Amino acid sequence: MAWRTSFNQWTKLDAINRSSLFSKNTRCTFHPQQRCGFRKAQRQVETKRCAPEEADAGGYKDGVRTQPRAPVPLRKPDRLFRPLVFTVAFTGCSFGAAAIFQYESVKSRVQMAMEEENKEQQDELLEACDTTYWHNWWNQLSDFQKQVILVMSGIDEWWSGLSEGQKTVTGIIAINSVVLCCWRIPSMQRTMVKYFTSNPASRTRCFPMVLSSFSHYSIIHMMANMYVLWTFSTSIVSLLGKEQFLALYLSGGVISTFASYVFKTSTRRLGPSLGASGAIMTILAAVCTKIPEAKLGIILLPVVSFSAGNALKAVVAMDTAGLLLGWRFFDHAAHLGGALFGVWYTLYGNEMIWRKREPLVKFWHALRNGSPGRAPPGGGGGQV
């Protein structure tokens, strides 16, 4: 028993002395799985890190001589080809659809005006009977039904008091609110990140260029953007009309996202972006360019006022500084892309795109009614 104990102590001491002769890296040989996993990961990282240098100078790699070749770019420019084609196609389709919607809107207004003239004569004859009928009908309702009708009438009165631009922007705000609620659903997080955030490194790069313009993760971010859009909605819709405004807004969102793609790819600062700031900058730049003498103010500082032209210059200067200095709090490339597109469209784009929509409207009129000889309503010309 004593011999066995001394033998065990001797073997343990001998094992300790042998293990002390090896370094820490050699001790890993006692764990083959850890050694293989560690060396594979280390070799993979070193290969990626040294690949451009070996490709430039040439040398031996795994026993095989490598030939000198041109450096491999980290971000391929061809990843921007599909977004570029999508941007051009989406912009053209947006303004084409806006021209067709304006045609249908004008046509429906003409039909409604003709129907209202016929109804006025009938309403005058049945006015006395209608008053008695509605009075009896109101008395038969319960208190809850009366409260619901009063609330609905209040909403209808509020809606009727809005301008055409505010009514249009209300739909945009509703869509942004729905998307904001979807961000709060855990099961939809992967879908929201894939389709509602724009990232040039993602496999899905085209559809997020549109959907990310309606996506906000923070309620404060959404409220700030929608407040600016609400403020300028009346002016821009009165200048362009709701159809042209929607086309400009959607196109501005896509073009600003493409500008962000170009900047991120060229500087290799890849990352996701979301928000309607790019599209709103397009609308802001269009209004400030068309009405540069308009007075603007800050909601928290009502005493301070400045012209729209100076405001646009200050915003562009700030985004340019952020782009050059590498600020990452905002997507300054998207802001600049949207602002430049808004300025260009006001100065040149309206004349080049919107005022030349007459052939498309005539084609749609012929396709719609089958009578190419008739003049389409709202065709030709256009609002500025």
TrEMBL record:
Keywords: Hydrolase, Membrane, Mitochondrion, Mitochondrion inner membrane, Transit peptide, Transmembrane, Transmembrane helix. InterPro entries: Peptidase_S54_rhomboid_dom, Rhomboid-like_sf, Rhomboid_protease_S54. GO terms for cellular component: mitochondrial inner membrane. Pfam families: Rhomboid (PF01694). It catalyses: Cleaves type-1 transmembrane domains using a catalytic dyad composed of serine and histidine that are contributed by different transmembrane domains. One of its GO terms (molecular function) is serine-type endopeptidase activity. It is found in: Mitochondrion inner membrane. It is a multi-pass membrane protein. GO terms for biological process: signal peptide processing. The chain crosses the membrane at residues 84-103, 168-185, 206-224, 244-263, 298-317, 329-347. Its main location: mitochondrion. It is an enzyme of class 3 (hydrolase). Its EC number is 3.4.21.105. Residues 208-348 form the Peptidase S54 rhomboid domain. Belongs to the peptidase S54 family. PANTHER family: PRESENILIN-ASSOCIATED RHOMBOID-LIKE PROTEIN A, MITOCHONDRIAL, RHOMBOID PROTEASE. This is rhomboid protease. It comes from Triplophysa rosa.
